[in-house]
Fold this sequence. Notes:
The chain is mainly β. It has strands at about 5, 10-15, 20-25, 35-40, 45-50, 55-60, 70-75, 80-85, 90-100, 105-110, 115-120.
Amino acid sequence: QVQLVESGGGLVQAGGSLRLSCVASGRAFSRYSMGWFRQAPGKEREFVAAQHWSNPQTKYADSVKGRFIMSRDNSKNTVFLQMSSLKPEDTAVYYCSVVNLVGGTVLPQRRDWGQGTQVTVSS
């Protein structure tokens, strides 16, 4: 199983920015479709963004469109989530995952979600 480690979270004021990183193990990273998810306290984990390994066009949740940008650096086995214009409702633990993109549906393939990285946006 691919090992994934997220970082870059923190406390930021509303309107601020953060850049999250996710480093993956394995040699086949360039062939992994990747996604970002988040889980707020008391809520279920939700989709944030996903990108097919062969198509840089990214799918975003409506709640983050125009504010978040997902990118990747295959030479570093890393995927990024640039978050701007942050809102208190963006407060959550953020996770990355290998995903399958099937007919517009994003299916995370991660079994152990680990600790993720905490993002807290103050108002």
